[in-house]
Every structure is written in structure tokens, then in C-alpha cells.
Amino acid sequence: MYAVVGLGNPGEKYARTRHNVGHMLIDVLTARSGGTLKGHRATNTHAVGVRMGEERIILATSDSYMNTSGGPVKKLLDYYKVDPENLIVIHDDLDLPFGTLKLKRGGGEGGHNGLKSITSTTGTKSYIRLRFGIGRPPGGQDPADYVLRPFSSDERTDLPALLERGADAIEDVLAIGLDKATTRLHSH
User: Fold this and answer.
1) Domain count across the chain
2) Per-residue pLDDT at 178
3) Euclidean distance between the first and final Cα of the chain, in Å?
């Protein structure tokens, strides 16, 4: 079994911000599956179990803030008995240009507090990540402010297609494995 978790902050205030691209992508995957995310008190997440091909998948978003997302992710993994090796985390990435999508297993957190929290609570960095590029803030804007702002109008135009491409990449990981999915995603 796999758990696919989209990182972000809870609440309407953050719903359309760059930091919540993980939540947005989980919404696309949930819609594709025909499922509905429901509050899951035991794990402090919104989650749904679905089938993607032969795999049983838990799609989830954390109900906690980004910096403390590790606790709910660990509870989700424990509740559903999912090995951290089968965790896929979708997150925003300042170090990639807007619209760039990258898959990888493990690595550093690149200053991303959500990843730091997950690594701390799971005790491993070897989970799979889908990095969604949001680019660097313009001028001297503080990165912390930038990630909490909505996408620009130009970015919003491209966002739906990018979210669909990200959902395709997650489905590819589950259907053909990380190596082949990475090759397919990175060759486009």
C-alpha cells in the first residue's frame, strides 16, 4: 500500500497559495479516483482510500500547518501500516522554476520545513517526493511571504495543466515504478 500526501496549510486563507500546491494536486488525484477526502480524526488528516490500477492508495492532506505536518503523516502511516518507503510527498519547491516537476527518492529537505518535519517523525529521508517548482521570489521578497501568496495570473493560467501532469506522474510511479516514471516525467 502507498500513501500519497500533499503538503500545505489548512484553511481557506491558504487554499490558493504556492505553499498549497500539494493539496491542489491531491484534489486532482481524488477527483480522478472518484473518491472524496474526509476528515480522519485518528491521523489529523483528510484522507481517502482508493485503487489505482492494482495498488491500494491512501490520498491525504494534513490538517496541521506545513511546519508540523510530520506528526499527521506519521500517524497516517502507522494507522494504515504503510512503510515510509511507500510514502509519496507532494510539495512546493523554491529551487525549481515555476512549472518544473521532479520526482526523486530521498535527499535533503532544501530548507523545506514540511519535509524536515516528516523526516524527523518518520526517521528516514528515503520517501518519494514530487517536487513542484514555484520559482524564487522576485527582487528581495522574503521567501516565507512569497510561498504564502497566491499564484500570479500567468501562473494560474498554466496551473491546471501542471497539476494534471503532476497527477500523471504520481499515477506513473504507482503503475510503472519510480525509475520509469522519473524517466517519463523528466523527458517531457
Assistant:
1) 1
2) 96
3) 28
